[in-house]
Amino acid sequence: MTGLHHVTAITRDVQANVDFWMGFLGLSLVKQTAGFEDAEQLHLFYGDATGAPGSLVSFLVWQDGAPGRVGHGQVAEIALAIPRARIGDWLTRAMQRGLRVEGPVREFGAPVLRLRDPDGIIVKLVGGDIPDTGWPAAPARLQGVTLWSQDAPATAAFLARFGYAHQGIEGGVTRLASDRDAIDIRDTAGFVPGIPGTGVIDHVALRVPDVAAIDAHRAALRDVTVHDRLYFTSLYVRDPAGILIELATDGPGMAVDEDDLGRTLKVPPHMTDDTDLRLRLPQFARPGEERTPMRDLPFIHRIHTPDDADGSVILLLHGTGGSESDLMPLAHRIAPRATLLGLRGRSTEEGVARFFRRLSMASFDQDDIRSEAAAFAGFWEGAMAAYGLDPARLTVLGYSNGANFAGAVMALHPGLIARAILIRPMLVLDPVPRADLSGVRVLTLQGARDPYGHYAPALNDWLTASGADLDARTIAAGHEIAPEDLAAASAWMASSGA
Q1: Beta-strand relationship, 201-208 and 182-187
Q2: What is the pLDDT of residues 170-201, one digit of tens each?
Q3: CATH number of this structure's domain 4-266
Q4: pTM of structure
Q5: Could you write out the three-class secondary structure of 383-417?
Q6: CATH 3.40.50.1820 domain locations along the chain
Q7: Which CATH architecture has domain 296-496?
Q8: Which residues are within 8 A (CB) of 10 and not within 5 positions of it... i.e. 6 or more apart?
Q9: What distance in Å separates the CA atoms of residue 366 and residue 364, rounded to the nearest whole number?
Q10: What is the C-alpha separation between 227 and 161, in angstroms, rounded?
Q11: 3-state secondary structure of 256
């Protein structure tokens, strides 16, 4: 038994990914699971309706993550098999969808269309002598991959042990073939190395029959790792050119934990399956399902809508080093039926996200605060219109740097935020403008052991002097979020009628 098992790539936009691989190509979503290495990373598998090995393309979701770079040491292209006579139909379909497509051209005697998915990953549709089941129909299976290697002969020799034999050379590409698919190796010596990130193919997996075969390869290879992925057992190894190769068993298969494949989120047995985890994973809609189209607004953002949403909204501003999903578990506990709108700060400090730059532990870039607050005001206006949100039912929840930013926005753009929960805030504007906050309700939660606690009174004094309806509390905690924060915020929200 030889051939490809699956290919795994990385996407930065789960909805666009689903729309292309399910909506355009017509593949079935056969598994959605929390990541086996990182549970907060959604993992999607597409393939034929049964999830058969050799038909699978999977994606790790790095939502709004940084792009990688294709270079040597990587898989550069995915090829899918279609009936030879359907090349024209696929060309028409791509043009009707407004997709850029190259070809058809001939590669190793077969007609090929080359296009890109929303992340820029190259997808080849290769016409071959396979059964034609009518039109429209999804590609039947994986036809091959293209590897970029800085040592093509060594890569070819390494793959020979897995049943891939030399078939020919064309245009600087060496083709190896199994009994059902092909691996092309392009010599990229002297080219730039690949960089991991979104829009990059992480690895290719080759089929092996069972765990005994994995054990045999484990004994024969060096520097390998073996993992139980529930649906198959995996061995990971790098070839002499640094390309990540996985060996994956045919069984137990995608149906081991569900009959209706891909309909529900699965969590690996060694991970904790709870509401917090599910809140952190991005939501998506299948083709034809109702959805909220995401808009291009000044801040990267994520929306989580509960099944029984009541029309209230909590807008989330994370602390230093956080992300747009960090506060979602806390916000959901405070108001289980609220729609959650999380933002990601645009300023960075040593590679971590913030909402404005910090000059020292207690001094801040005033120009950056003002420019980011102006951008937030633009985001606010755009989000209210784009997503049909009711500003009167919106509460801002900020923690640390996010709370400080919310306070600055209230000062610089009074009338925007009407209700806010600020956890571990401090006053960051210097000087602080006068503002009329009449009718604005604010809860501040300071930690009794917070090393920044002595900065809190200045913000509270300014809020009171500006006319805000302030509820200032000190809880038994440090700078971290504590259970007392949840209790206080929940009670305050219930009393506010939000």
Answers
A1: unpaired
A2: 999 999 999 999 999 999 999 999 999 999 99
A3: 3.10.180.10
A4: 0.94
A5: HHHHHCCCHHHEEEEEECHHHHHHHHHHHHCCCCC
A6: 296-496
A7: 3-Layer(aba) Sandwich (3.40)
A8: 59, 60, 61, 62, 65, 68, 119, 196, 197, 198, 199, 200, 201, 202
A9: 6
A10: 21
A11: helix
